[in-house]
């Protein structure tokens, strides 16, 4: 049984945990290669003593090129459709490729390769091929980066049969889920949150995997189930602390996977707490949050004292101005107010 | 625009305005905590100045993440741009877009754009509008050397060629796609060579020299305007700063290289070429620099004294017509 929460040990930052998982898997399996834009940086300038100029746009890939060389650590031109498709092609012919899409907002450039090739090849070719491909990408608003660098569109990928998706919330889950994603024989989309890179948590030094498709409970409670996705898990934890002061004992679930979604874990919790609020930074229509609410309504209807409820971003693009962006991202007061209104309305 | 004395002074004023906007506006934006996605075009001023000198207010341009210079050269008000960077309601995008999305349709400015190469087909589309509606307008798609390797550029060039559209593909080759050197990412030494694949002329010019840009852009734009179709114009230029304010470019390029390009500074080159003629005096150009310095002071004051958007503006301009309740329904938004 894998520990979903580590007991004690060394701390790493979220981005360091990603880096460690990449290095350990590349040491273990020579078929693992990585490609992306600026993952090393300053490519082709070794003769000037330049190598690893960036180590990745958020330094998650620092040091890889020194250890594994430019044959296995490939900086790419800005050609997402081409290199993502090539990564998928290489993954279906003997390599195990990790490819980075700098921000999830850029998915449109390579969407066809992801949804019509990676997601469907195993099925439409009658099981002849495997696509052990991992795409790293980034989500998250709150940084003044406006509509094309701030989205959290994991729901679009979850909609596609054939793709798996994970949303690590801390350094421990970042390492365990990345290791599992790389070793998995299906395409896995790995969503890093820009607001978590410098967060430290306990991370074992040895290699380990966490199961794809499993959520974890970070705080037990009996009064209501709060489900967090990625960084929103920590909004849920902070809201739970506030709710505790009001005499409401919230249970907090960290979703960790957006495909498959661990409905069973959530339903088991709702059977105990009889209420559900999902906190999701993605937009609300056809979303992970709406999907979880619908699943709970269908499968745990008799256990509910209140309607399954969401706290999400609005159905708008991400605005630039701080005064607007501050309203856009779910926050602790919105979660607390929502839970209070459920309590006042139904209990 | 003719390069008589007035035209020359205009070219210099555009370049100086861009230079001063970047040097003042970017740190000021940073001090207001909004610099995450702001990109300086200092060093590249000659390209937008030289190209846009041939454009009327009605012509179109599409731009990039490094687009302040294109906006200014096309006539967008620097005060309004500063307000946009500060997230104020008086910006052309009402604070919704910021640096990477500045758009001003009253100036034919179709938007700076945060996705590399994404604005190129928009310029092609604007040229299509001009052709179908017989507007006699041209469109210029500005893009960088990074965008040159995106598939959508190639599709756009082919479309423009087969439809014979009045569009100029203007590549500002500053040598680096973020930190990746151009020579690593491209199979050809001159991007302008790629024009041959689409049976259109390819121009290759010194993008630090506003006169070289002006001359080649004039040929390409004249060609487009007279119905002879698209061109590819590669301008070799240089950005003095990093990709963003967080990037130290000396991690991937040399001080010698930076120093070399600064000896070829576009404003300095302009002075070196024009002053010996005697038509324009040093004090006239110094006066323009002083005006620009003062304009940026006014722009910062204007931006700071402008109101922030109303929080309810979050829901405005998502659609032309859509129920407000549907944008909030099931979200538990607090506004």
Task: Describe the protein in words.
The complex is a heterodimer of chains A (347) and B (335). Chain A is of the alpha/beta class. Chain A has two domains: 11-202, Rossmann fold, CATH 3.40.50.970; 216-346, Rossmann fold (3-Layer(aba) Sandwich), CATH 3.40.50.920. In chain A, 36% of the residues lie in helices and 18% in strands. Chain A contains twelve helices and 14 strands. Chain A has helices at residues 14-28, 64-68, 80-91, 107-118, 121-124, 154-158, 171-183, 232-245, 263-273, 288-299, 322-328, 332-346; strands at residues 11-13, 32-36, 73-75, 96-101, 134-139, 164-166, 188-193, 200-202, 216-219, 224-228, 250-254, 257-259, 276-280, 309-312. In chain A, strand 6, helix 7 (171-183) and strand 7 (188-193) form a beta-alpha-beta unit. The radius of gyration of chain A is 20 Å and the shape is globular. Chain A starts with 10 loop residues before the first strand and ends with a helix. The relative contact order of chain A is 0.12. With 335 residues, chain B is of the alpha/beta class. Chain B has twelve helices and seven strands. Chain B has a single domain (5-328), classed as Rossmann fold. In chain B, the strands form two sheets. In chain B, strands 1-2-3-7-6 form a five-stranded parallel β-sheet, sandwiched between helices. A two-stranded antiparallel sheet of chain B has the order 4-5. In chain B, helix 8 (210-225) links the parallel strand 6 and strand 7 (231-236). Classes of the chains: A alpha/beta (347), B alpha/beta (335). Chains A and B meet through helix 3, strand 14, helix 11 and helix 12 of A and strand 5, helix 7 and helix 12 of B.
Supply database-style keywords.
heterodimer; A: 347 residues; alpha/beta; Rossmann fold; 2 domains; 7-stranded mixed sheet; 5-stranded mixed sheet; B: 335 residues; 5-stranded parallel sheet; two-stranded antiparallel ribbon; 12 helices; 7 strands
């Amino acid at each position: 049984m894998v520990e979903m929460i580590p007991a004690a040990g060394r701390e790493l930052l979220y981005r360091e945990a990603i880096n460690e998982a990449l290095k350990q898997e590349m040491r273990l399996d020579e078929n693992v290669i990585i490609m992306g834009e600026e993952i090393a940086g300053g490519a082709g300038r070794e003769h000037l003593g330049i190598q690893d100029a960036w180590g990745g746009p958020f330094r998650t890939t620092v040091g890889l090129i020194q250890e594994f060389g430019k044959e296995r650590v490939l900086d790419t031109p800005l050609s997402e459709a081409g290199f993502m498709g090539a990564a998928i092609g290489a993954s279906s012919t003997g390599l195990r490729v990790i490819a980075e899409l700098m921000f999830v907002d850029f998915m449109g450039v390579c969407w066809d390769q992801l949804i019509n090739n990676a997601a469907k090849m195993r099925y439409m070719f009658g099981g002849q091929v495997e696509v052990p491909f991992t795409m790293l990408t980034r989500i998250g608003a709150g940084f003044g980066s406006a509509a094309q660098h701030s989205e959290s569109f994991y729901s679009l990928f979850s909609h596609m049969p054939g793709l798996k998706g994970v949303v690590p919330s801390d350094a421990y889950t970042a390492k365990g889920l990345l290791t599992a994603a790389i070793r998995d024989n299906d395409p896995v989309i790995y969503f890093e949150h820009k607001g978590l890179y410098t967060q430290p948590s306990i991370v074992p030094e040895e290699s380990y995997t966490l199961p794809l498709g499993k959520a974890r409970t970070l705080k037990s409670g009996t009064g209501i189930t709060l489900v967090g996705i990625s960084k929103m898990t920590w909004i849920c934890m902070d809201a739970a602390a506030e709710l505790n002061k009001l005499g409401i004992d919230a249970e907090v679930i960290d979703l960790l996977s957006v495909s498959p979604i661990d409905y069973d874990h959530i339903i088991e919790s709702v059977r105990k707490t009889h209420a559900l609020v999902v906190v999701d930074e993605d937009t609300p229509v056809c979303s992970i949050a709406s999907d979880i609410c619908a699943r709970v309504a269908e499968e745990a209807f008799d256990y509910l004292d209140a309607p399954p409820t969401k706290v999400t971003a609005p159905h708008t693009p991400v605005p630039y101005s701080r005064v607007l962006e501050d309203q856009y991202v779910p926050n602790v007061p919105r979660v607390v107010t929502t839970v209070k209104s459920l309590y006042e309305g139904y209990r | 625009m003719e390069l008589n004395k007035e035209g020359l002074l205009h070219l210099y004023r555009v370049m100086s305005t861009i230079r001063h906007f970047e040097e003042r506006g970017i740190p000021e934006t940073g001090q207001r905590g909004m610099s995450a996605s702001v990109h300086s075009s200092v060093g590249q001023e000659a390209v937008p100045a030289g190209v846009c000198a041939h454009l009327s207010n009605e012509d179109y341009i599409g731009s990039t993440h490094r687009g302040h210079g294109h906006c200014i050269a096309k006539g967008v008000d620097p005060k309004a741009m500063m307000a946009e960077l500060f997230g104020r309601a008086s910006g052309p995008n009402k604070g919704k877009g910021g640096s990477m999305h500045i758009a001003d349709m009253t100036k034919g400015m179709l938007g700076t754009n945060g996705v590399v190469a994404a604005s190129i087909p928009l310029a092609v589309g604007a040229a299509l509008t001009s052709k179908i509606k017989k507007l006699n307008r041209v469109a210029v798609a500005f893009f960088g050397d990074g965008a040159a390797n995106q598939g959508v550029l190639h599709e756009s060039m082919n479309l423009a060629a087969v439809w014979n559209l009045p569009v100029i593909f203007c590549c500002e080759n500053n040598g680096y796609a973020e930190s990746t050197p151009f020579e690593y990412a491209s199979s050809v030494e001159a991007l302008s060579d790629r024009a041959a694949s689409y049976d259109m002329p390819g121009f290759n010019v010194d993008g630090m020299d506003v006169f070289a840009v002006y001359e080649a852009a004039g040929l390409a734009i004249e060609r487009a305007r007279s119905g002879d179709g698209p061109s590819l114009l590669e301008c070799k230029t240089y950005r003095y700063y990093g990709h963003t304010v967080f990037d130290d470019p000396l991690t991937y390029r040399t001080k010698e290289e930076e120093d070399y390009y600064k000896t070829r500074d576009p404003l300095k080159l302009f002075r070196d070429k024009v002053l010996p003629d005697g038509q324009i005096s040093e004090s006239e150009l110094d006066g323009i620099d002083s005006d620009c310095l003062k304009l940026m002071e006014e722009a910062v004051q204007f931006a700071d004294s402008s109101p922030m958007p109303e929080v309810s503006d979050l829901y405005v301009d998502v659609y032309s017509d859509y129920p407000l309740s549907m944008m909030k329904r099931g979200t538990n938004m607090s506004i």
